[in-house]
Here is the input.
Amino acid sequence: MGRCPGCEGWNTFQEEVVYRESEREKQRERWRGNQSNSLAEAQAVPLPEVQAGERVRLKLPDAELQRVLGGGLVPGSLVLIGGEPGIGKSTLMLQMAMSLEERVLYVSGEESASQIKMRADRIGLVNPDCYLLTQTNTTQILQQARKLEPAFLIVDSIQTLRSPLLDSLPGSVTQIRESAGELQRFAKETGIPVVLIGHINKEGQLAGPKLLEHVVDTVLSFEGDRNHAYRILRSLKNRFGSTDELGIYEMRGSGLRPVSNPSELLIAQTDEQLSGSAIAATVEGLRPMLIETQALVSTAVYGTPQRSATGFDLRRLHMLLAVLEKRGKFPLGQYDVFLNMAGGIRVQDPGIDLAVISSLLSSFHDIALPYHSCFAGEVGLSGEIRAVHRIEQRIQEADRLGFKLFYLPRSNMKGLDSSRYAIELKPMGKVEELYHELFEL
Ligand code: TYD
Ligand code: MG
Here is the structure.
């Protein structure tokens, strides 16, 4: 059918195979195997009597990945790792496969065996028990996997898989759903954890939409700016751990290097004081992290002032500029504003606002901020500086790295024992107050 009479869109129909009951039963039988609980015997049990029987997780040598997964791979779990093309998903997984001392099966439907070999050579790790299969047919993949019995299975990528049970093209919604379903049944039945790689489309959605998120146990997202070296691995859903954890990597010529101490990389520790640069004490996930924010405010050359932000939400920048304009009477509407986060890292913590505002003002006046100072605080619409979470962790991190001044929301001071830190705390209530404190104008 060409045009949908409902939504009037062209070629929007997707093929969906409806099995006749007998075929569906046959298909179920294949994986049901020796599962004893047939439908007739199903019985509800009181929850306290259920045996948890936590099975041993597969430990990974990569501490970042291990932590993001909530402490290793759970047997029989299905993990989806999504990210834009070229961000390093295949590298991350191949690296994990090569660094384990277990049998691993790496299935690729994207690249040839020689391409993968070349990447493995760059990474420079060797696992003699790592097997490679270039195949897209799910039946054949699972056949091989059953034969090899690996400690875990990697599939690169879910969009290339094709189940012979369906006629539709790889990458279509029905194919993705069916292939993911087959892999999930395989994982549950054999206890072999399966990692799926999935591409993200232009809108930032996992292609083969949201439906995959319900099928899998864990969804990880690999993000970063391709032109920068740093990558963040976030957990968006995890049935076996917290989603607050996050891993940081640096892309090098020889693969991805876990960064265990991000603060030291994300701030340029020069003794020269530059205007427009402020250090933010942020918390990403559960981790405190100091990041340098850089702003450039300059007279608009063209009629309409430009605003651009890397690693920061542009709408939030507009909001902060409006606050400064209204509350502080700075004529920023006539200026071009550029904002950068060091390393191209995308910051989600609203506590970075105070550093952004400070760097904007510093660039506007062309006056450097006080020596060895750093900032944490969210800025509200009326220019009030609001409390942030995990303030102690932020202060400790700044203290540890030798900072001298810490600007923070006044409302965060309650119950804070400042004598525990060498760093001097500067509580601030409003943006105006911060302004007078910083520039004394
Ligand atoms: P890749 O893992 O192929 O990305 P994805 O599977 O997410 O599409 O890696 C993409 C980029 O990483 C590629 O442009 C080259 C770079 N890279 C390095 O810089 N160093 C390395 O050691 C490797 C293997 C890749
Ligand atoms: Mg790839």
Notes: The domain at 63-260 is CATH 3.40.50.300 (Rossmann fold). The chain is about 30% helix and 25% strand. Residues 351 and 409 are 10 Å apart (CA to CA). The mean pLDDT is 87.
